[in-house]
Automatic annotation (TrEMBL), chain A:
One BP annotation, GO: phosphorelay signal transduction system
Record protein name field: Two-component response regulator
Taxonomic lineage from the root: Bacteria, Pseudomonadati, Bacteroidota, Sphingobacteriia, Sphingobacteriales
InterPro entries on file: Bact_response_regulator, CheY-like_superfamily, Sig_transdc_resp-reg_receiver
Organism for this UniProt entry: Mucilaginibacter galii
Alphabetized UniProt keyword annotations: Phosphoprotein
UniProt cross-references to Gene3D superfamilies, sorted A to Z: 3.40.50.2300
Pfam families from the UniProt entry: Response_reg
Domain of life: Bacteria
4-aspartylphosphate PTM sites in chain numbering: 57
Domain annotation Response regulatory: ranges: 2-125
Length: 126, 436
């Protein structure tokens, strides 16, 4: 299963790679990374059919996670639409509601609880 | 003709007596005046019988001369000196007449009318002078009165001014202490605005520290398993990952450390010490703090942050904390402006704040530009004034830009320029001299 992680902090990349070390080695999961919403859209242009899950930070310079979410829901509505989980350091009700209104499937707060994330991924892994 | 000096002496004493009528000096001189008058009269009559004798003339000259000499040397009569001097022509005329008469009686008789005219003329001269000096005295008296009035007025005004000066000095002292308090309050207010941004900025590296240390624990366990299994190669790969993680923990720990240090530095009173600083680092740090500060208050707010830092800028000698405050202030203003414009505009408005640095000849330039509400022309002149703010009451102190001006221009010999177009953009340009 292909997962796209969108975060302007480059250091999330080794973190995901190490946390999902076993899953990657067993070819259960494949991670790709984008450092901005713009970069994510570029990537999706080519490979949107392959990407099953998008994990996106909300708070990024330039295009925000919400903007990205709106674009994904507008541009890639053909079934099956990708699962989008929003991640933010601001775990408040307002952000949660906004994410849900814009069509997010889930909402995670930083610091990421990877065990929780793994639980959430289980039903997605075919 | 001997008659005139006597008469002049007699009138001189009478005149003095009259002049001193209301003066405290009169009792002292009263008797002397009578003695003088009596002496003159007695002498006049004593020598009267020598009707055409030359002796009579000399006695008259002597009487007038000694009287003048005596009065001239009395300090009490100093104000009358010019009056006394007016008798000198008569004295001289009478004396010359008497001398000529003594030497050559015939010559004198031939020209007696000339001498007589001279003596009468000199006598009249005295009265002309008296009349004239009376006029002058009157003018002087008026001038003296006016002077006294003016002096009293000046004294009064001086007293008022001294009082005002003291009050003003007091006010200035109070203002100075108020200003110091306000500067501190402003600093604290901007720190308050920053708190959320700072929390976010610290939270991020802390998350990494926690995540990387957790994942490293897992990796170590895995490494142990691999070693037990004898897969040395895999164990070495894991060890290299762990090493990398520890580096990242160190890096993010230092990042949080730097932020906390910066915050403490911001809240402390300025040391006023100039030190070499990297403008790019300073600007970058406050750029993010300011952005997250605003975002923490308004979650729906999002802006594009553009940085155009010229790499390899020389360090500048500045009071870091103060210049940092200026930059922070300008960022806060910029984000506020784009946020305000976003509230008024359609959804295709893209809030953008841009910071750029450049090296000019002798200067480092920092430019902060936003595409926010802009500054209307009518308030452009006012924005640097203390306490001027367009924010609602309680939201702005109105001191930000005024303090910024003081810091950049007065303390660092730099310049701060504003370029703005309403509903288009605002651009602040700071230039700091490299030699400070």
């Amino acid at each position: 299963m292909k997962i796209l992680v969108v975060d302007d902090e480059a250091d999330v990349q080794p973190l995901f790679l190490q946390r999902f070390r076993k899953e990657i080695r067993n070819h259960e999961l494949e991670f790709n990374f984008a450092l901005s919403g713009e970069e994510a859209l570029d990537y999706l242009k080519e490979k949107h059919s392959e990407v099953v899950l998008i994990l996106s930070d909300i708070n990024m310079p330039g295009m925000s996670g919400f903007d990205l979410l709106t674009r994904i829901r507008n541009d890639y509505g053909i079934p099956p639409p990708p699962v989008v989980m929003m991640i933010t350091a601001y775990g408040d009700e307002e952000s949660y509601q906004q994410a849900m209104d814009k069509g997010a499937n889930d909402f995670l707060t930083k610091p990421l609880d990877f065990n929780l994330l793994k639980e959430k991924l289980k039903p997605l892994i075919v | 003709m001997h008659f005139f000096p006597f008469l002049a002496a007699f009138l001189l004493i009478r005149h003095l007596q009259r002049s001193l009528k209301f003066s405290p000096l009169l009792p002292k001189w009263k008797n002397m005046f009578w003695v003088g008058t009596a002496t003159i009269v007695v002498l006049f009559f004593a020598f009267l019988k020598d009707k055409h004798g030359v002796l009579n003339d000399f006695v008259g000259v002597a009487v007038l001369g000694s009287l003048l000499y005596y009065l001239y040397n009395e300090p009490d009569f100093k104000p009358f000196h010019s009056y006394l001097f007016s008798h000198l022509p008569l004295l001289a005329a009478a004396f010359i007449g008497a001398c000529v008469r003594l030497i050559n009686e015939d010559f004198y008789e031939d020209f007696s009318s000339v001498f007589q005219i001279a003596i009468v003329g000199a006598f009249i001269w005295i009265f002309a002078r008296v009349a004239n000096s009376k006029k002058q005295d009157e003018a002087l008296r008026v001038a003296a009165e006016r002077k006294a009035e003016l002096e009293a007025l000046v004294k009064e005004r001086t007293a008022e001014l001294t009082l005002q000066k003291n009050e003003l000095e007091q006010a200035v002292t109070e203002l100075k202490s108020t200003q110091a308090q306000l500067i501190q309050a402003e600093k604290m207010a901007s720190l308050g605005e920053l708190t959320a941004g700072i929390a976010h900025e610290i939270q991020n590296p802390l998350n990494f520290v926690n995540n990387f240390s957790e994942v490293s624990m897992e990796l170590i366990e895995e490494m142990e398993q691999e070693l037990e299994r004898g897969d040395i190669e895999e164990a070495i790969a894991i060890a290299s990952d762990v090493k990398q993680n520890l580096e990242k923990i160190g890096f993010h720990g230092k990042r949080a450390d730097g932020i906390v240090k910066g915050m403490l530095q911001h809240s402390r009173a300025s040391t006023g010490q100039k030190e070499l600083a990297d403008i790019n680092v300073l600007a970058d740090e406050y750029f993010r703090l300011s952005y997250h500060g605003l975002r923490a208050k308004d979650k729906s707010f999002n802006a594009t942050l553009v940085t155009n830092f010229t790499p390899g800028l020389p360090q500048v000698n500045i009071i870091q904390q103060d210049v940092g405050r200026v930059i922070l202030n300008l960022f806060n203003n910029a984000f506020y402006a784009v946020q305000q414009r976003q509230k008024q505009s359609s959804s295709d408005y893209k809030p953008t704040v841009e910071v750029s640095t450049a090296l000019l000849i002798g200067f480092i330039q920092i430019r902060i530009k936003d595409n926010g509400t802009g500054i209307p022309d009518e308030i452009k002149e006012k924005i640097m004034q203390p306490f001027f703010t367009t924010k609602p009451t309680g939201e702005g102190t109105g001191l930000g830009l005024s303090l910024s001006y003081d810091i950049i221009v007065k303390a660092h010999n730099g310049t701060i320029d504003i370029d703005s177009k309403e509903n288009d953009y605002t651009q602040f340009t700071i230039k700091l001299p490299l030699t400070n």
